[in-house]
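Provenance

Sequences were taken from public entries as deposited. Structures were produced by running a predictor on each sequence independently, with no templates supplied. The record for DUF4307 domain-containing protein from Streptomyces seoulensis is shown for reference.
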Amino acid sequence: MATASTRLPEGRYGRSSDERADHRLKILGAVLGAALLALVGYFAYHYVAKNEISAQVITFQASDHAVRVHLEVHRDAGVDGYCTLRSQSADGTEVGRADFRFSGPDTRVDKVVTLRTTAKGGTAELLGCHAG
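Predicted structure for DUF4307 domain-containing protein:
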């Protein structure tokens, strides 16, 4: 006794609706992926190209009520701005925060600044630099 097949004959009725839906989903996924990649690329370029000031903490020395920070700043010519520094105590409490301004014609500023603290600071952290 033979059993009857429930499958349709190959190629007789065209593609099934599931195959068409899968094809549309693949196209939609490719388009959305390309758009997301373009958006990430745009923001990455904008962040790198517009970053007019960058800085780094070279060394720091902490005392009971201040932290002396050796700061190196690189900036575009003619751009004035400021960098924000903070210090934390050994238990993680913030004990000092201040902005330090940089102006003048130099594109590289190598400066030692003093950050006043409310207690002995154990760190000197550069939070960021901004033009303006």
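The longest strand covers residues 53-62.
The chain is about 25% helix and 40% strand.
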